[in-house]
Amino acid sequence: MAASNKSLRRSRDRWIAGVCGGLADYFGWPADRVRILYVLVSVLSAAFPGILVYILLWFVMPEAD
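Above: the chain sequence. Below: its structure as tokens.
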């Protein structure tokens, strides 16, 4: 099996920091769906601290080239 050259990076398709856009690029999904899913999971789940995870990913994920 060949190694994938994909890397998780923040996207230039951004609203705030490009985290959801970067996740969408990595998984090959539409960015709008990832944003909607992220908001729904954050709001509907008490066990998922959405804002804290987003801020953490903002600082951990490198900027897109």
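The first helix runs from residue 19 to 27.
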